[in-house]
């Protein structure tokens, strides 16, 4: 290598110092515009979800939705809306009741006036095909001592199914010739049950006993009836216990509220029963009465189920002066229909008249 060539070479240290260093690149910041778009999108989604959730809570429910709900809570309100498909008017000792069937729902049947969906206002007019909306106010109830949750505006499944069971039991009673028909409650709290008969046969009162049975709890402490499904289950159990109680001397599922060993006695053991010989002929026959004065219920939404049984219903016993009837007692006393002549179904109904 010549001297000239050696002069052209640059020392390594000089090369390193002569190379222009690139400035250190700072961390690239996230675009502010993209972050704002993301926040706005999330906020929009949250608003949509909140609106939908609120709408789901507050929107009117169909009667089918209401009857499918579980774990109902006292204090909650549910708005129900539907089309009126049947109207019934029933006169009871507690006043006139208007029952509306919504959306053709037949969960409690449609053969009896009280088997509709909700209670209407007897002071208003209704027509089939009209839209109807009301608020259901869920409250603490009790039935035969069992804790429950229900709305007083609902007719089905309670008290409709319990009352329909009474119709079945009345049919059983008619097979024995006699049956009992509710005919009002007087100012002293006595509910009058008139004896009806297929024939004019009279029976000696000293051969006709009477017993008033009260249904016991089915669920027991700690269990709450909190859905339509549970109310139907209780009605099923009630029907089974009633069926077993008709001919039993000491029926399971019932306690003896009162008894008369004979209708010839002036009073019953506990003062809840009495026989009234309306025609004063000394016999038990059509037109006479069995009067019942059950005790008041334990609370403002308490209900109890009773069965009145007269005559000997033991298996194999002769059908002598025998009748049986099932009824409900609620906050306003006995809930039972007055004779069928004043109960009607219609396509429209106007405000009731006294």
Q: Helix coverage percent of residues?
A: 10-25%
Shape: elongated
Q: What is the element string, with H for helices and E for strands?
A: HHHHEEEEEEEHEEEEHEEEEEEEE
Radius of gyration, whole Å: 37 Å
Our estimate of the beta-strand percent is: 25-35%
Tell me the total number of β-strands: 19
Largest sheet: 8 strands, mixed
Q: List the domain count as a whole number.
A: 2
The number of helical runs is 6
Alpha-beta classification? alpha+beta
Distance N terminus to C terminus?
Answer: 135 Å
What's the pLDDT, averaged over the residues? 86
Uncertain regions spanning at least 5 consecutive residues: 12-22
What's the multimeric state? single chain
């Amino acid at each position: 290598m010549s001297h000239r060539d050696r002069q052209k070479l640059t020392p390594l240290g000089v090369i390193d110092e002569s190379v222009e260093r690139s400035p250190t690149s700072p961390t690239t910041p996230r675009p502010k515009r993209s972050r704002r778009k993301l926040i706005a999108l999330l906020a929009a989604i949250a608003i949509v979800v909140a609106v939908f959730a609120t709408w789901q809570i507050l929107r009117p429910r169909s009667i089918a939705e209401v009857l499918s709900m579980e774990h109902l809570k006292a204090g909650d309100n549910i708005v129900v809306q539907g089309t009126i498909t049947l109207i019934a008017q029933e006169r009871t000792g507690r006043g006139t009741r208007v029952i509306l069937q919504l959306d053709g729902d037949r969960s409690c049947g449609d053969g009896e006036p009280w088997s509709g969906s909700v209670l209407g206002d007897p002071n208003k007019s209704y027509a089939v095909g009209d839209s109807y909306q009301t608020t259901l106010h869920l409250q603490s109830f009790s039935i035969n001592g069992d804790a429950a949750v229900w709305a007083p505006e609902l007719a089905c499944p309670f008290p409709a199914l319990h009352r329909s069971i009474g119709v079945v039991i009345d049919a059983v009673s008619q097979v024995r010739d006699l049956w009992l028909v509710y005919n009002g409650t007087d100012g002293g709290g006595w509910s009058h049950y008139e004896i009806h008969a297929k024939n004019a046969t009279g029976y000696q009162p000293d051969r006709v006993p009477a017993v008033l049975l009260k249904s016991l709890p089915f669920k027991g402490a700690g269990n709450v009836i909190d859905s339509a499904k549970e109310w139907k289950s209780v009605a099923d159990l009630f029907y089974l216990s009633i069926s077993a109680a008709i001919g039993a001397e000491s029926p399971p599922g019932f306690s003896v509220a009162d008894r008369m060993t004979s209708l010839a006695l002036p009073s019953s053991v506990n003062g809840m029963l009495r026989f009234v010989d309306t025609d004063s002929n000394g016999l038990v026959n059509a037109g006479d009465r069995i009067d019942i004065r059950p005790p008041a219920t334990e609370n403002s939404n308490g209900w109890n189920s009773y069965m009145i049984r007269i005559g000997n219903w033991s298996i194999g016993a002769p059908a002598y002066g025998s009748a049986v009837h099932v009824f409900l007692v609620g906050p306003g006393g006995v809930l039972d229909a007055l004779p069928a002549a004043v109960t009607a179904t219609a396509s429209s109904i106007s405000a009731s008249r006294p």
